[in-house]
Amino acid sequence: MVLNIIWLGFFAAAFVAALWQTLQGDFDAFTRVMTALFDAAKTGFEIALGLTGMMALWLGFMKVGERAGVIHAFARGVSPLLRQLLPGVPHGHPAQGALTMNVSANLLGLDNAATPLGLKAMHELQTLNPRPDTATNAQIMFIVLNTAGLTLIPTSVIAIRQTMAVKQGLTGFNAADIFLPTLVATGLSLLSALVAVAVAQRLPLWRAAFVGPVLALAAAVGALAWWLAALPPADAAAWMGLIGSASILAVVLLFLGAGAWRRVNVYEAFVDGAKEGFDVAVRIIPYLVAMLAAIAVFRASGLLDAVMGVIAAAVHALGLPTDFLPALPVGLMKVLSGSGARGIMVDVMQTHGVDSFAGKLAAIIQGSTETTFYVLAVYFGSVGVKHTRHALPCALFADAAGLLAAIAVAYWFFV
């Protein structure tokens, strides 16, 4: 409902602005808006077309990993941590399997796979709910973990960046250079979410079974980030690209190696997964075109520049840098809609360049924040929960922390 109002508002506001400019003597206003509208539709389709191959490729490898048992093994590995966060879920309950698989899919940046697993997990958690219309502590923790989901590999964002780089004629471009910054930003967002929910639910997160793995991961990522931050920007970017690319290829080889070891027909599995990737990419086209069209007419009417000018003036008055402002709308829209934020991210990359600071920051924000209102509406709605208690405040707190972390991390690594 909110996204529907925003989308209609973009077109209505653009028409009013163009009409006002025409009355002021600018007879090209409507022509600019119309041209931007048709160009956006073409751009949306071209990007989705380029994304098709990348999604088919990655989901193909994921299918190999699934049939080889790697993803299930990973899910079992994170299961002990989830038991610490969800003490109300009995050991061995069916919800644990769906929960761990959902978290695993989010870690690998596979939103399309995470959603059905998340819905399954919510239905299993609902079987433990003594008050079906009110969210339990376990359901709230699970929802907030999703809205602030830790992403190890932002696959769809990397795929879009690579597609945009080809479209912009960049050579030698490494779309994986946002790998580490995104990991740091989304890790801070997740930690904020855990603290917020733990305070609300009075969970003892200081237990060694939870603190140990978290501190180990934080120390490893922090040491790596500190080392990279001490390097010259060009060297740091090169190392980040190398680490990102090597990590992704290592995952691919792990899937293929495990598949060969377990005598899985890896080629057949890859093709089956690639078919799913093609379907996912095709389903993205309408959403991408719709949002890009709305943003294009809003920008062509001059309203986006006017809004950002007001925000820039306020930020400048506080003595803060304004380089991050072009990417800020991505974070604001991501709370409402993932497809909407994806469209704004593409618009930022197209306007400022995929390799610009604004383009990199937009990608980091897209990969490290989540669609809070969408997740709450879909997940709680699927089980008939009406009273969400402290779920929304905790999720919004995590979103704000993730957005601020993304901006800070981008300045740390790329400026």
| First-residue to last-residue Cα separation | 39 Å
Q: What is the helix tally?
A: 17
Helix proportion: over 70%
Q: Approximately what portion of the residues adopt beta-strand conformation?
A: under 5%
Report the average pLDDT across residues: 78
Given the helix and strand composition, which structural class is it? mainly alpha
**How many DSSP-defined strands?**
0
Count of distinct structural domains: 1
In terms of quaternary structure, the protein is single chain
The 3D shape can be described as globular
Largest sheet: none
Unreliable stretches covering 5 or more consecutive residues: none
User: Which sequence of SSEs, written as H and E, runs from N to C?
Assistant: HHHHHHHHHHHHHHHHH
Task: State Rg.
Answer: 22 Å
Gist?
With 415 residues, this protein is mostly helical. The chain is built from 17 helices and no strands.
